[in-house]
């Protein structure tokens, strides 16, 4: 059989990757507090239990607020950086872009500890805003990566053509460039939003009195009776992430189709 | 109309434009011709306002352009990539520049867009998506979009280079017709000498950021001022020559001949170079009278083009061959290599350059 071993390898790889994740919804609907087979029967009560926990709700709202602000800030910063890196030549461009993209590969725990030390030294108290600062730092490189490919696919002369036809620089950017990279902007925003929503380490270090959802989740793992509810919450988060990422990818592909360009990749 | 005086452009240490001086009158089809990197596109972009001049001055219609932003200049441009707005329809593309004009209402705008599309032969294409068009159609949209604003000058940056041969020839004729019809100044950038010769009233040949020669196509072809210009435009044979009298020259392999002053370019001293176009030489077939000026040679190679045959003929063994082009008339044989041939030439079509 041609490529037989490679096919087996690919299947094993996918099982290894997704089996643990698949267990999440299975136990979320299991009628029993112990996470073990055999399953005890089907129930939706853990989801109902979620609805009753007040602390969870405030953690959820806190997370949504942080994710929204982070995604907005990251996307705005990324539009500027992506445009500069694809359109202009300036001294020190390579090291500057390298430094901006570095948080992509920097261990998050190092970033988190460093930020904590700096904030404490500056005497800034830990609030949702400190989490937002940390999240913006790690989300911006992702947004830049997505937007760079959007700007790269754009013919540099379309903006000049708009100026030539009587638009000001800003007018040309607004009427031509922005609509053309809009799908990239939506995609970048949603991915930054998802990363911030799911992020744990930085939130754990920088969060103040109000925990984010992942931090709250982690704190609940100490109570065995809460574990099925955590599983239910995890299932919902998984679903939300999948939906958001699908929308992001759809936006990116539609943008390429609309301008008749060629698909040069993306995160999905 | 367009006045360029000692125009200079530096990119850091790179000297892109060196003292460009030219006057382009109203209604002229003017071409900037040169190899890539000669500065022709930089000069065009400077006229459009996309490049700041490092020195010199640029006026359009007598008005100094140094403080006029590109979006306020009376010029419009057709970009090499056409720069069609891919998210807009054909009509929205063509009408883009009219949106800013408060004096034109929607009906008038619609009418102008229709007229512009009609002018470039795209009537009824208004509602199409721009990215679904072919190369030639995009070209026409770009043209309509620029001309709808009635600019004083239309700038064209290698507009035909992306089209196939047939389409290119068709667009060349069409651009020429359009330019005569609307009568505005066209400035075309091209690296294709044939295209420049076909379309232009006047051509500026540029090398290394300087204008080497600026003349009408016929003058440029028949009286190139330097060897470099002669080599860039068409094909030319070069033979070593010497000045043996006031207007007498001895050309290697061809012998002595009287050459009129108008055919002797600046810089030709005692040692010089004679230039001959392939079509000014002709192989004599059996039965023709041998004229005063002729030479014997051996055909070393030939290339058959259908309408023409190009022969390489060596005059003196060991020297480089000269190229001769012959029309393939009825009854005229195609000669094989290693055939002896008698070649007639005409001193009136010879040009003398400096060595």
- Can you say what the CATH homologous superfamily of the largest domain in chain B is? P-loop containing nucleotide triphosphate hydrolases
Distance between the first and last residues' Cα of chain A: 30 Å
Order of helices and strands of chain A: HHHHHHHHHHH
Q: Spans of chain B of 5+ residues with little confidence (pLDDT < 50)?
A: none
Mean pLDDT of chain B: 92
Radius of gyration of chain A: 22 Å
Structural class of chain B: alpha+beta
Domains of chain A, number? 1
Any idea what the CATH architecture of chain A is? Orthogonal Bundle
Percentage of β-strand residues of chain A: under 5%
GO biological process, one term (chain B): putrescine transport
Organism (chain B): Litoreibacter roseus
GO molecular function (chain B): ATP binding; ATP hydrolysis activity; transmembrane transporter activity
Keywords (chain B): ATP-binding, Nucleotide-binding, Transport
């Amino acid at each position: 059989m041609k490529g037989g071993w490679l096919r087996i390898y690919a299947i094993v790889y996918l099982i290894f990757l997704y089996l643990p994740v698949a267990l999440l919804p299975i136990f979320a609907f299991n009628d029993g507090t112990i996470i073990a087979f055999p399953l005890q029967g089907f129930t939706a009560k853990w989801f109902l239990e979620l609805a009753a926990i007040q602390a969870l709700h405030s953690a959820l709202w806190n997370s949504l607020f942080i994710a929204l602000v982070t995604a907005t800030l990251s996307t705005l910063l990324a539009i500027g950086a992506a445009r500069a890196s694809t359109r202009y030549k300036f001294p020190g461009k390579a090291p500057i872009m390298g430094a901006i993209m570095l948080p992509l590969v920097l261990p998050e725990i190092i970033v988190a500890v460093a930020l904590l030390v700096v904030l404490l030294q500056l005497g800034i108290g830990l609030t949702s805003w400190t989490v937002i600062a940390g999240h913006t730092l790690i989300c911006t490189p992702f947004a830049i990566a997505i937007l760079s490919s959007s700007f790269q696919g754009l013919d540099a002369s379309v903006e000049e053509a708009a100026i030539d036809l009587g638009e000001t620089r800003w007018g040309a950017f607004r009427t031509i460039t922005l609509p053309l990279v809009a799908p990239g902007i939506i995609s970048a925003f949603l991915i930054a939003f998802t990363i911030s929503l799911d992020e744990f380490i930085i939130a754990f270090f920088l969060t103040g009195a109000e925990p984010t959802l992942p931090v709250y989740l982690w704190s609940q793992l100490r109570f065995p009776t809460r574990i099925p509810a955590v599983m239910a919450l995890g299932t919902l988060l998984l679903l939300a992430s999948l939906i958001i990422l699908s929308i992001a990818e759809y936006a990116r592909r539609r943008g390429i189709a609309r301008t008749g360009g060629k698909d040069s990749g993306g995160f999905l | 109309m367009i006045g360029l005086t000692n125009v200079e452009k530096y990119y850091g240490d790179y000297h892109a434009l060196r003292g460009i001086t030219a006057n382009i009158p109203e209604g002229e089809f003017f071409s900037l011709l040169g190899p890539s990197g000669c500065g022709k596109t930089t000069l065009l972009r400077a006229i459009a306002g996309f490049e700041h001049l490092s020195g010199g001055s640029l006026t359009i219609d007598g008005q100094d352009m140094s403080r006029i932003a590109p979006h306020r200049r009376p010029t419009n441009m057709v970009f090499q990539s056409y720069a069609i707005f891919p998210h807009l329809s054909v009509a929205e593309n063509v009408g883009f520049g009219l949106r800013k004009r408060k004096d034109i209402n929607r009906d008038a705008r619609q009418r102008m867009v229709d007229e512009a599309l009609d002018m470039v032969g795209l009537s009824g294409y208004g509602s199409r998506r721009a990215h679904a068009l072919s190369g030639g159609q995009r070209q026409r949209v770009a043209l309509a979009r620029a001309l709808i604003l009635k600019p004083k000058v239309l700038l064209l940056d290698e507009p035909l280079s992306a089209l196939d041969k047939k389409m290119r020839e068709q667009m060349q004729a069409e651009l020429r017709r359009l330019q005569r019809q609307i009568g505005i100044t066209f400035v075309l950038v091209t690296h294709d000498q044939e295209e420049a010769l076909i379309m232009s009233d006047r051509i500026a040949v540029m090398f290394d950021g300087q204008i080497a020669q600026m003349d009408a196509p016929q003058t440029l072809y028949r009286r190139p001022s330097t060897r470099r210009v002669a080599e860039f435009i068409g094909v030319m044979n070069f033979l070593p020559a010497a000045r043996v009298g006031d207007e007498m020259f001895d050309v290697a392999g061809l012998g002595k001949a009287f050459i009129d002053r108008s055919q002797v370019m600046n810089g030709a001293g005692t040692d010089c170079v004679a230039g001959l176009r392939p079509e000014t030489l002709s192989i004599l077939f059996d039965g023709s009278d041998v004229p005063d000026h002729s030479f014997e040679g051996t055909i070393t190679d030939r290339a058959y083009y259908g309408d023409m045959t190009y022969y390489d003929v060596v005059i003196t063994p060991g020297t480089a061959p000269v190229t001769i082009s012959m029309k393939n008339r009825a009854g005229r044989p195609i000669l094989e290599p290693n055939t002896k041939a008698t070649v007639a030439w005409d001193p009136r079509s010879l040009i003398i350059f400096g060595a």
